[in-house]
Amino acid sequence: MALSIEEISDRIEIDDLLTRYTVAIDTKDWKLLDTCFLPDAQLDYTQTGGIQGAYPEVREWLEKALAAFPMTVHYISNSTVTLEGDRAKARTYVINPMGFPNPDGSLHIFTVGGYYVDELTRTADGWRIATRMEEQAFMDGTLPEALQVPQ
To answer: Which pLDDT band holds residue 114 (cuts at 50, 70, 90)?
Structure first.
């Protein structure tokens, strides 16, 4: 089945949104992150040790939690997108190596793998994430002993 020009455009815009999220998180650009979510979006990072709640609360938590990591890299791929007019659903694979500073200056590296399960909404400013749940599939390595995750 051939896609319409609008469907092709929507898929590219959604891909750009998902990529923008990873760039915002890895560069800790919180204003850029604001362009990824609806103001009242609901997020659930509990499967990967995070919190769940409304976007403003989770954004504040992300700022605190990720401040401990000088290095995070989010690789995303294999997005399955279902378009439903001005709404869409997406499931995207994510591999996320993270580096925590050791006392000797080296990095304690561990990797989380899983999926972002999103519901998206088209707005006047483009596509935005309305809900996100992160499903953990695996963790390679161990959490650093000194890591203190804020609640």
So the answer is: very high
